[in-house]
Amino acid sequence: MKKLAFLFICICLLVIGTVSGYGLYINCSEKIQMGQPLKVSIDSDFPVGTSFDLVFYESRYTATEIDRQSVTIQENKQTQYRLFDTNGLRGGDYKVEIQFKGADEPRLRSDSTTVKLVKLIDRSGEITITSPLTQDVDEALRIEGSIAKLGNNGIEIEVRGPSGPLFGPQWIETKNDMKLGDGLFTRTIPVGTRGDYMVNFRDVNGFIGSITFHVTSTSPTTSLTTISIPPPTKVTTRPPVTTIATEMPSPTKSQFSIVPTLLAIFIISWMVIGAIGKKYR
């Protein structure tokens, strides 16, 4: 009898709890590699049209908000998904949390899950790049380096450029560094276009990190010399000018210098004629 009474009470509490609230459940991986998207699933039996925010925080001394996305319950009540970008974040502790926009939180059932803790693992320090991060477009893209302690297990690379996916994801071989045990890799992928190219590295344990290469033109260019051409001179047509050389007057040709000479000749002639006349008288 007591067992039946206890079972009846449990059923009543379950029914009352179900009727008195709604369930809301979020779920995601507890650990992900830095650079991988954080995928969060959302399930709920809230009424259609109920909206709330899913917020991504960094958890250190204080919670720092990184991103938030809105979620609205649909009529089919199917599982919804939201992705949070982790590129550029540092390794450490993070969390995703539901934030209600109204008074919906008190209506939650006690078994709801509205907070999930996430650890972001930074493996980018395992990558060593020995090829230049800035390369000439005629020689790019040369990807050379090593992955710490990888040996000859191989890595998967994916290249994305200004126009989107360019290469991979594809596995390439690595050669074991006998001294350090690192995995040495080299691969050249023609790009043909200037811009930034991001290379993602993965191994069997998951995402390792991303490296960005800058492809530009470093070849010397021939500078063009600009020659300034003066505007054409306006030519005005004029009749030809005849220049007459002015002859300098000579003493013998001057009309003023010949008069005294003639006068002197006349006087001398007059005197001679007078003297001759006197002689024959």
Distance between the termini: 211 Å
Q: Under the CATH scheme, which architecture of the domain at 20-121 would be assigned?
A: Sandwich
Mean pLDDT: 82
What is the percentage of strand-forming residues? 35-45%
The multimeric state of the shown protein is single chain
Radius of gyration: 52 Å
Count of strand segments = 17
Overall CATH class of the domain at 20-121: Mainly Beta
Fraction of residues in helix? 10-25%
Poorly predicted runs of 5 or more residues: 221-226, 250-256
CATH topology value of the domain at 20-121: Immunoglobulin-like
Q: Please write the string of helix (H) and strand (E) elements.
A: HEEEEEEEEEEEEEEEEEH
Output the keywords.
2 helices; mainly beta; 39% strand; Immunoglobulin-like; 5-stranded mixed β-sheet; 15% helix; 281 residues
Describe, in short, the structure shown.
With 281 residues, this protein is mainly β. It has helices at 2-20, 258-280, and strands at residues 24-27, 31-33, 38-44, 51-59, 63-72, 80-84, 92-100, 115-121, 127-129, 134-136, 142-147, 155-161, 164-172, 175-176, 183-188, 195-203, 206-216. Among the domains are: 20-121, Immunoglobulin-like, CATH 2.60.40.1930; 125-216, Immunoglobulin-like (Sandwich).
Describe the structure.
This protein has two helices and 17 strands. With 281 residues, the protein is mainly beta. Mean pLDDT is 82; it is low at 221-226 and 250-256. It has helices at 2-20, 258-280; strands at 24-27, 31-33, 38-44, 51-59, 63-72, 80-84, 92-100, 115-121, 127-129, 134-136, 142-147, 155-161, 164-172, 175-176, 183-188, 195-203, 206-216. The strands form four sheets. It has a five-stranded mixed β-sheet with strand order 2-8-7-4-5, with no helix packed on it. A five-stranded mixed β-sheet has the order 10-17-16-12-13, with no helix packed on it. The radius of gyration is 52 Å and the shape is elongated. Among the domains are: 20-121, Macroglobulin (MG2) domain (Immunoglobulin-like, Sandwich); 125-216, Sandwich (Immunoglobulin-like), CATH 2.60.40.1930.
